[in-house]
Amino acid sequence: MTQTITVIRGDGIGPEIMDATLFILDKLGAGLQYEEADAGVAALEKHGDLMPKVTLDSIAKNKVALKSPLTTPVGGGFTSINVSLRRHFDLYANVRPVVSFPNTKSRYENIDMITVRENTEGAYISEGQEVSADGETAVSITRVTRKGSERVVRYAFELAKANGRKKVTAVHKANIIKSTSGLFLKVAREVAADYPEIEFQEMIVDNACMQLVMRPEQFDVVVTTNLFGDILSDLCAGLVGGLGLAPGANIGKDAAIFEAVHGTAPDIAGQGKANPVALLLAAVQMLEHLGQQDNAERLRKAIVATMDAKDSLTGDLGGTGSTMEFAKAIASRL
Ligand code: NAI
Ligand code: MG
To answer: What sequence ranges are listed for the domain Isopropylmalate dehydrogenase-like (predicted)?
Structure first.
């Protein structure tokens, strides 16, 4: 059965890493059809809109999108495209797996964890952002809801269950931020009670930072609110060798968007130097989401084997390969 996905080639290095990724997905025989849709600066030039309606319609129809990084122009009052996509499709869970790869700059070897970040509320609602007339005092509103907390914590437990993972850690600051973080923790405890087979752990966010740096291999699935999740998930990417290896999924009830965590890398765009692995790992997440566990595993193994052999690695990984040479080396190991 073929499945149609929306493909957004994006800006900067976006088209290069997407070419490499689609080349490999075709070799994999994933049976995917691609509906290309524009977003970002590429779309602004063609349609006069950073996120044209045809693109939103395509994602709504196909329910799954693979997306390269996009440039949100600075100035001109544009809302971040990624933020507006999250809002439009109510993509409530930001899911970022990190796994140790061979021959990276990481200090650790046994990391295999997933952070699940609440993606729609908390400190990022951009409401009530006020600075007093004298410029001396600033306030902003943080809002946490039972509904928002419940669905993201449940997603984390379901993810753990589906992947044979053993533990979910809820990261919070309920001892100080008693209202919002307190509600999140209370709901996390309630949801955890529905999953007696999975260990539930609570950890205060500052301790979680220290534990992640000292003993990251103790973590399995981490679930947390928006702001903490933003920070912790980048910290976790750093633990395994940086943004070039970090994918992320934005999951909602009606749509899911898979992407690399890094940006458009304007400094190396158009030079064939970009590392395609982060987008490829996003494709692995997408294949898992589509129920293609075997293909996801084959692709992940081919990436690991290529990195282990140091075959045609791109410059950020210490090699001299081009984006497409690296992709071909991976494809040869599928
Ligand atoms: P960036 O991630 O684009 O680049 C940071 C550094 O990492 C650069 O030196 C870059 O060359 C390197 N790098 C990033 N991805 C790489 C890859 N795949 N292979 C090799 N090296 C790689 O972050 P920056 O410079 O802060 O942002 C540049 C643009 O990207 C901005 O316009 C920003 O808005 C956009 N952006 C878009 C995102 C998205 O659409 N999801 C996420 C983050 C940034
Ligand atoms: Mg971030």
So the answer is: 4-330
Query: Which ipTM was obtained for this model?
Result: 0.97
Judge whether 234 counts as a catalytic residue: no
Q: Which of 49, 194, 206, 308 is flagged as catalytic?
A: 206
Is the distance from CB of 221 to CB of 167 less than 8 angstroms?
A: yes
Q: How confident is the model at residue 77 (pLDDT cuts 50, 70, 90)?
A: confident
What is the 234 CA–ligand 2 centroid distance (Å)? Answer: 6
CB distance 128 to 142 below 8 Å: no
Q: Which residue segments constitute the domains of the chain, with CATH numbers given? A: 1-97+240-334 (3.40.718.10), 107-239 (3.40.718.10)
pLDDT digits (tens, 9 = 90+) for 44-67: 989 988 999 999 999 999 999 999
For this structure, is 230 an active site residue? yes
Query: In the prediction, which pLDDT does 249 show?
Result: 98
Which residues share a beta bridge with 321? none
CB 151 within 8 A of CB 145: no
Q: Judge residue 91's burial from the number of C-beta atoms within 10 Å of its C-beta, 0-12 exposed, 13-18 middle, 19 or more buried.
A: buried
Q: Please work out whether the CB of residue 183 comes within 6 Å of at least one atom of ligand 1.
A: no
Distance between CA 212 and CA 204 in Å, rounded? 12
In whole angstroms, give the CA distance from residue 189 to residue 223. 12
Cross-sheet strand order for the sheet of 32-36: 32-36, 3-8, 64-67, 256-260, 247-251, 93-99, 112-118, 221-224, 167-172, 199-204
